[in-house]
Design goal:
mainly alpha; about 65% helix; globular
Length: about 110
């Protein structure tokens, strides 16, 4: 319900398809250069970044979501950083929602 107007699933389905399309485009733009870098460069950071990228393939989405919540929460490293910068917490906000793209990273 939005401003007293109730929507059905059929009316909202194009919105969800558009969001999925935008997510796919964003991930292709981000992941393709990262995959090229991981396959070509031999640095010490490569193993760490490769491990982070592989996490969504190994861990269930609920576990990754919990880890993101802890990482961005008031006691997490990112939460403390954003609080000290005066940005506030990222949990349950739109910028925090963008972290969910990490869960779909390799797919």
């Amino acid at each position: 319900m939005f401003n007293g107007i109730e929507f059905t699933w059929e009316e909202l389905q194009p919105v969800f398809v558009s969001i999925q399309l935008l997510t796919t485009i964003f991930l292709v733009i981000l992941v393709t250069p990262l995959a090229w870098w991981l396959s070509r460069k031999k640095t010490t950071a490569r193993s760490v970044i490769s491990s982070i990228v592989t996490l969504p393939l190994v861990l269930p989405p609920t576990v990754l979501g919990f880890y993101l919540l802890v990482f961005m929460g008031p006691n997490g490293p990112l939460g403390k950083l954003t609080e000290s910068l005066g940005i506030g917490l990222l949990t349950f906000t739109f910028p925090g929602l963008l972290a969910l793209w990490f869960i779909h990273f390799p797919s």
